Structure formats: structure tokens, C-alpha cells
TrEMBL record:
The active site is at K207 (proton donor/acceptor), S417 (nucleophile). This is Signal peptide peptidase SppA, 67K type. The chain crosses the membrane at residues 21-43. It is found in: Membrane. GO terms for cellular component: membrane. GO terms for biological process: signal peptide processing. One of its GO terms (molecular function) is serine-type peptidase activity. Residues 139-295, 401-550 form the Peptidase S49 domain. The keyword Cell division does not apply. Pfam families: Peptidase_S49.
């Protein structure tokens, strides 16, 4: 009995010591971070932060997904992750930065060749790949060579590699072009086993966003619609690659028997198959690649590799990222404002990387209230989402037009469903040939759990003053409430096609014939009258300036303003990160950490990721009326 107080005291004393040590460690860590930050600022003041060798190769070693707009990340969190060598699980690379870096390198006499080392590149989408490829083709007009190399090439990676003058693949490497497909998991039977009742309200024969919850397979209507736009994208891919590589579009082995025969003839080697098929030019080991690059640009200072600089270091050295100032003050010069609407459309205020009805409307309002802004380009890269949030954004587009400021919608990889809703009122719509658009339809969905709960002995009962009092997910959906929701969805669809008809100078019948939730490529959408021109963001900016009758102008990217705290932390921690980079060893040829890239090749991780993404998407739904205009079928894999 007398020993118990002593034992308890010792336990709590041990816990307190651990707590004290942890607190001291964290405080010391923060102190040294700030110390290194200030040292970095002092040492780098007025000097070039990252040296570019006089004669070097620029290594375009892109890691992560290519995006129109990066998601918001806390500067301190980002720095700590980098300092402790914790890799971002979903790294992102800004499309505008890639294009600008390539353009800068084209004019930089220090850069003699460009090396594409793309094994860290994840998702991009054909539209973004086409924009990057155009920049690479323009780079070659300078007379400088592009060399693509790697241990393997995914389909997206190879699209960019095909722009190179020479493609090198490791003799033990892998490459296979598997085309485009759209495959999803379906949950109808699983939901039935869990006794979860799903209630779907939709308009549109081809509005397949809700099919995973009401079917165990893809409907014939969805297969027909999806196959059409997937075939269009695949044809564009084949034509682009074939033209650059100098062979016909029949050199894509879509038939498994032909593929197996060619693979067998290549001694069952993927590398030999790629070489014989003219996909690559040479098979080289890493040592052979490094040696040949040394012959082209010389050795680095350490003498153990070729003279080169990586993508991030070059961008920092040349300060080549786009001016992203969100301030609307400055020189009294006419501006074409660019507002990026990227991600799912959700109600309320959302962080960058997701479209918020309120937050995106606020950006458009800033453009409207700025006297220097004479025209606006709304860059849309979205499969849609909340119908209500889409309408809030559309209203701001209309107010811009009423203010006498032309609006051009520029469609990226996706501009479907809600993405088309916010694009429709623009004075002109530009889309890439590979843009996925349309999906003009609307749906509502809710689940009730009365049967699941009853199996656990949980029941809901009570009284109310009206037929709808107490309505919720623990009770069965009555026929009357179901009819109410369906009428609301029908009204939403009529509003959508009326919006399109009014802005596209079409009749309701004409819109309905090409709507019904059906997805189209940008190329086909132009034929149908859903878009005006085929072109990229630059073309849209020129069109906006032309409509505003501007001869001299500058562009202004309007985005969420950083808080004063984040601005200071980003400056301090950015300088500190640069300092650490200067003290670190020179970047080696195959130094990319491919942990993030390779995870998708692990079946269990892939399955868990797919399930997580599905649940995350469902959890994001926050439309106040439960109405959504979303194209879940828009992703191609």
C-alpha cells in the first residue's frame, strides 16, 4: 500500500520529463530554423542564390502532378517537411512555371541542351502535356538539342519524351503505351449488403456520375459516350507522337496478339521492343548516359557527373516563375486579368486548388473593381461540383460583362458540368482539342441508414407538426420527399440548358440534344457549337485584349492574397531552404526520390488510394440544395 504513491509519482515524473524534453526540442528546432533563415538572407543578399554553370544541361526533372494552380500549403509545414526529408505525398508542379522555365532556357546561352528526366512525373492530362510539348518544340528552334532519358517511360512521360531529338532508355527499362481508358469501382451490391439505401435524382441519359452507387457495372449509355471522347483523345495522342517520331499511327499496338508477337520477337525485353518499334533511339546504361552527356557539356565541378542544373534550382536562379502578385495596385497600365478556377466546385470559401463559390467570385470581383483591368480570362480546369456555387460564380462573370470588361473562358484539361456552367456566359470560349467538356446535366444524391441501424437495434420514431419535420438520414425517404427532390433536379437541368441556349445562341431542343450529361472533347465541342475557338491560355489572353481593344497591355494573375504572417514566413524559410541547397551535394543524374511515383505501382496502395479518393469526393459534397453538376467520368487512365 505504501509503495503505490511512489510508483505513481515516478510514472508521472517520467511523463513530465518526456514532455519537458519534447517541448525543449521543438523550441530549439524553431530557434535554429529562424537562425538559418536570417543567415540565409544575409548571405544571399544581392547575390545569385543558385549558380548556373557557364556551360550546362538543364535537367527538366519534374516530380509530381502538373497543375494549373497549386493547393495551399503552410510555409512552415512545407519547410519542416523538406528540412526533415519528408517527401510530399502529392507533389505538384505548376504548368505556367514549366513553360516559363523552358522559354527562359531557350534564350540562356549558358544552357546548351535540355535533358528530359521525367520518371518523377505523375498525372498531367493531355491538354497540359500539349502545352508543355509546344514549349519544348519552340525550344528546339533555338538550335539546341533535347535529350530524353530514363529507366522507364509512362504514357504521359513518353508524350513529352517524343519531342526530344534523341530518346535513351535503360537496357533493362520498361515502356508500354496502353491507350486511354475509364474504369471505376461500383458499389451497388456492397451498399445493399450494408443495408444502406441510396436515393438518386438525376436528369440526363448520359449523366453517369451516380452510376457507381446504383449499379455494379457501367451502363451501355455511359460506355458509348465515354468511348467516343476517349477515342478522340487517343487519336490526338497517336497523331502527335507519330508526327514527331516519323512513323504512322498504325505503329501503336492496340491488339494484344500483335503486341505479344512483337514482344516475343524482341526476346521478351520491353527495352528491345521499344527500340525495334522506334519508340526510343538508343539503349544505354546510366553510366553510358552520363558519359555521353559529359562529352556534350563537360563535367561538373566535382568531376563525377556532367555539368547540369535541375529544374527547381534553375527556376530559383533565373527567378523565372510567373509574376503572381495578387495586389491590384501598381503601374497605371492596362491589364488582362487571369483568374484560375481549378478543382472541384464547392460552396463557400475554399483554399487554392479547389474552386469555392464565394472565394472564386471574390477574385472575379477584384478584377471588376480594378480600373487597370480591362478584360478577364477565366482559366477553367474543373470537372464541376456544386450547382449553387457554380451559379454564384456565373453571376460574377455576368457582372464583369456589364461593367464593360470582356470575359474569355479558357478551358484546360477539364471544363465539364459545373466547369462548363461557369464558362458558358463568357464572351468567347477557348478550349484545347483535348479538353474534356460538356457533361451538361445535374443530379442529387443522398443515403439513408434506417435499415443499417435497425440491424443494430437502433430505430428512429417521433412526431412532428408537418410531413417533413424530422427528415434525416436515419429515416426512410418518403415518396413525397423523393418527388420534391426530383422536381428540384428537373428545374436545375432546365436552368442549365437555358443558360447554354441563351449564351450559345441555340434553342433548348438543340442544347438538350447534345446535353443529357454527355461528355465531349474540345475538338468535338467546337463542331457542336459549345466552344468558339481551339487554343491555349495565350490565345485566350490575346483574344481578351482584342475584344477590349488593347494595343499595349500586361497580364495580372489574380489569386488569394497571402496573410502577412505567411508572407514573412515564406520569405524567411525560402531563403533558408536556398541556403541548405547551396551547402548540399550537387544534384546527381538519377537522384529523384521515386517513392511517391512508384507507390501507384503497388496494387494494395493503388486500391486504398482509389477508395480514399472516392470517399473524399463524397465527403466534399456541400451544395446547400444538394444539387450537383459534376463529371466524375472525366478522368482518363
Amino acid at each position: 500500500m505504501n509503495n503505490n504513491p511512489g510508483i505513481i509519482k515516478r510514472i508521472f515524473s517520467s511523463i513530465w520529463r518526456v514532455f519537458t524534453f519534447t517541448r525543449s526540442f521543438v523550441l530549439n528546432l524553431v530557434f535554429f530554423i529562424l537562425l538559418f533563415s536570417f543567415i540565409g538572407i544575409i548571405l544571399s543578399s544581392g547575390e545569385e542564390q543558385v549558380p548556373v554553370p557557364d556551360k550546362a544541361a538543364l535537367v527538366l526533372n519534374l516530380v509530381g502532378d502538373v497543375v494549373e494552380q497549386k493547393r495551399e500549403v503552410d510555409p512552415m509545414e512545407a519547410f519542416l517537411s523538406e528540412a526533415m526529408e519528408q517527401k510530399d505525398e502529392k507533389p505538384e508542379v505548376l504548368l505556367a512555371d514549366i513553360i516559363d522555365v523552358i522559354g527562359t532556357a531557350k534564350k540562356d546561352d549558358r544552357v546548351e541542351i535540355l535533358v528530359l528526366q521525367l520518371q518523377g512525373l505523375n498525372r498531367a492530362g493531355l491538354t497540359k502535356l500539349q502545352d508543355i510539348a509546344a514549349a519544348l518544340e519552340d525550344f528546339k528552334t533555338s538550335g539546341k538539342q533535347i535529350i530524353a532519358l530514363g529507366d522507364q517511360f509512362s504514357q504521359d512521360q513518353y508524350y513529352l519524351a517524343s519531342t526530344a531529338n534523341d530518346i535513351w532508355l535503360n537496357p533493362q527499362g520498361f515502356m508500354l503505351l496502353d491507350g486511354y481508358g475509364r474504369y471505376k469501382m461500383y458499389f451497388k451490391t456492397a451498399l445493399e449488403k450494408l443495408a444502406i439505401n441510396q436515393h438518386i435524382f438525376r436528369v440526363g441519359t448520359f449523366k453517369s456520375a451516380v452510376e457507381p452507387f446504383i449499379r455494379d457495372d457501367m451502363s451501355e449509355a455511359a460506355k458509348k459516350a465515354n468511348k467516343l471522347w476517349l477515342a478522340d483523345l487517343w487519336m490526338q495522342y497517336k497523331e502527335d507522337v507519330a508526327n514527331r517520331r516519323g512513323f504512322g499511327i498504325d505503329n501503336f499496338d492496340e491488339n494484344i496478339d500483335n503486341l505479344v508477337a512483337k514482344f516475343s520477337a524482341a526476346d521478351s525485353s520491353f527495352a528491345q521492343y521499344a527500340l525495334k518499334n522506334n519508340w526510343v533511339d538508343q539503349l544505354k546504361s546510366r553510366h553510358e548516359m552520363r558519359s555521353e552527356l559529359i562529352e556534350l557539356v563537360g563535367t561538373n565541378k566535382k568531376g563525377d557527373s556532367y555539368s547540369h542544373i535541375g529544374y527547381k534550382d534553375y527556376m530559383a536562379a533565373t527567378n523565372s516563375s510567373l509574376d503572381k502578385s495578387a495586389e491590384l495596385t501598381g503601374k497605371n497600365i492596362d491589364r488582362v486579368a487571369i483568374v484560375v478556377a481549378k478543382g472541384n466546385i464547392l460552396d463557400g470559401t475554399q483554399k487554392p486548388g479547389t474552386i469555392g463559390g464565394d472565394s472564386t467570385a471574390k477574385l472575379l470581383r477584384k478584377a471588376r473593381n480594378n480600373d487597370n483591368v480591362k478584360a478577364v480570362v477565366l482559366r477553367v480546369d474543373s470537372p464541376g461540383g456544386s450547382a449553387y456555387a457554380s451559379e454564384i460564380i456565373r453571376q460574377e462573370v455576368e457582372l464583369l460583362k456589364k461593367a464593360g470588361k470582356p470575359v474569355i473562358a479558357s478551358m484546360g484539361t477539364y471544363a465539364a458540368s459545373g466547369g462548363y456552367w461557369i464558362s458558358a456566359p463568357a464572351d468567347k470560349i477557348y478550349a484545347a482539342p483535348s479538353t474534356i467538356t460538356g457533361s451538361i446535366g445535374i443530379f442529387g444524391m443522398m443515403m439513408t441508414f434506417e435499415d443499417s441501424l435497425s440491424k443494430m437495434g437502433i430505430h428512429t420514431d417521433g412526431v412532428g407538426t408537418t410531413d417533413i419535420a424530422g427528415f434525416g438520414p436515419t429515416q426512410a425517404l418518403t415518396p413525397g420527399m423523393a418527388n420534391l427532390f426530383q422536381l428540384s433536379i428537373n428545374r436545375g437541368y432546365q436552368e442549365f440548358i437555358q443558360l447554354v441556349a441563351t449564351n450559345r445562341d441555340m434553342t433548348l431542343e438543340e442544347v438538350d440534344a447534345i446535353a443529357q450529361g454527355r461528355v465531349w472533347s474540345g475538338k468535338k465541342a467546337k463542331e457542336l457549337g459549345l466552344v468558339d475557338e481551339l487554343g491555349n491560355l495565350t490565345d485566350a489572353v490575346v483574344a481578351a485584349a482584342t475584344l477590349a481593344k488593347l494595343e499595349q497591355y500586361d497580364t495580372l494573375l489574380i489569386e488569394k492574397e497571402q496573410s502577412p504572417r505567411n508572407k514573412i514566413m515564406q520569405q524567411l524559410l525560402g531563403q533558408s531552404t536556398t541556403l541548405v541547397s547551396l551547402f548540399s551535394a550537387n544534384e546527381e543524374l538519377f537522384s529523384i526520390d521515386l517513392a511517391t511515383h512508384s507507390v501507384k505501382n503497388k496494387p494494395l496502395s493503388q486500391f486504398i488510394t482509389m477508395m480514399t479518393d472516392e470517399l473524399k469526393l463524397m465527403n466534399q459534397f456541400n451544395d446547400p440544395q444538394g444539387r450537383y453538376t459534376l463529371c466524375i467520368a472525366c478522368g482518363a487512365n
